[in-house]
Design brief:
Mean pLDDT: 82
Helix content: 25-40%
Oligomer: single chain
Number of helices: 7
Largest sheet: 6 strands, mixed
Length: about 300
């Protein structure tokens, strides 16, 4: 059994953590930690963040056993009582860490052997961990345009979100990453780089088509990022970026008379806010580096004041 623990937030904002291989601990210490784990009540992945203040200590815990990983993310206000003794123990073992300190994602494997006890179970349906974030269909096949800034999709691509809602990126779609505030490009490595690429493509197309509410489009971007393998910290940072600074629109209906008959057509009003400065983007990134935030709280989180009406 291996345990990975990260503490963040608090008034200092420092990151502290530890990695423990229970098998390598002295006998009495090993027995103590095994008892703490057995009584912690962590049985599956869960985010239990109270959102009651930026300066609360926040905890992220991963327990690996028998090929499975269970995770708990919580803060001082939402820490389950059963898990408190384990967290207190891990806090006492934690040392300063850098931003490269990561935790394993929840996974699912074959059932445990007879008589083998598991701390928790992976997804009940046995899917790969990122399946809970939906799935992509097809691959990105595109050609660069002469301007060197835009690509045209040569083949269709799609993302099915966790609710099985389909987000199409048809062949012929122009994509350029413009739906993502440029001030964050250096943080993410560019919209077409690595694990962000697939999410950026479907987000670009949805922001261009504007046939769904902008709030839903930006939430889709977060889930597509996680589906593409982007870690929680980066995905939530970019969700904040697109939600508070990305494209927005409002659809109104306009009625005209055509051939003596009323004709209703949608009119799209652009309401995109001003882009963030490089300094504002850096402030937002630093906040997410030192705070654990639930994705559900990001729409109302005000790190940089914007007009979210």
């Amino acid at each position: 059994m291996r345990i990975t623990f990260l503490q963040s937030g608090g008034f200092t904002g420092a990151l502290r953590g530890c990695r423990l291989d229970v098998a390598g601990l002295p006998g009495p210490e090993r027995g103590r930690l095994e008892r703490l784990v057995a009584g912690c009540g962590v049985e599956d992945f869960g985010e239990r963040l109270s959102g009651g203040g930026r300066d609360r200590r926040q905890y992220d815990l991963a327990i690996e056993q028998a090929g499975r990983v269970v995770r708990l993310a919580c803060d001082e206000g939402s820490l389950p009582e059963a898990a408190r003794p384990l967290i207190d123990y891990l806090v006492s073992r934690a040392t300063p860490q850098g931003l490269d300190f990561t935790l394993p994602e929840p996974t699912a494997t074959e059932p445990a052997a007879p008589g083998q006890q598991l701390v928790g179970a992976g997804p009940a349906n046995g899917q790969r961990p990122r399946d809970r974030w939906g799935r992509f269909e097809g691959g990105i096949v595109a050609r660069w345009e002469e301007d060197g800034r835009q690509m045209t999709l040569v083949e269709p691509f799609a993302y099915l979100d966790p609710r099985e809602v389909r987000w199409e990126a048809p062949a012929g779609s122009l994509v350029n990453g413009a739906s993502i505030p440029r001030a964050f490009w250096s943080f993410m490595g560019g919209p077409f780089a690595g694990e962000f690429r697939d999410a950026s493509v479907v987000h670009d197309v949805a922001c261009e088509e504007r046939d769904r509410p902008w709030r839903a489009v930006h939430r889709m971007f977060y889930e597509a990022c996680r589906c593409g393998g982007v870690g929680s910290f980066k995905a939530k940072t970019m969700y904040y970026a697109v939600f508070h600074f990305g494209p927005r629109w409002h659809v109104e209906e306009r009625t005209t008379i055509v051939a003596g008959q009323p004709h209703v057509e949608p009119v799209i009003r652009d309401e995109t806010p001003p882009p963030p400065t490089d300094e504002e983007a850096a402030t937002i990134v630093r906040y997410f580096e030192t705070h654990r935030v639930a994705a559900e709280d990001i729409p109302t989180l005000a790190i940089i004041e914007t007009d979210d009406s």
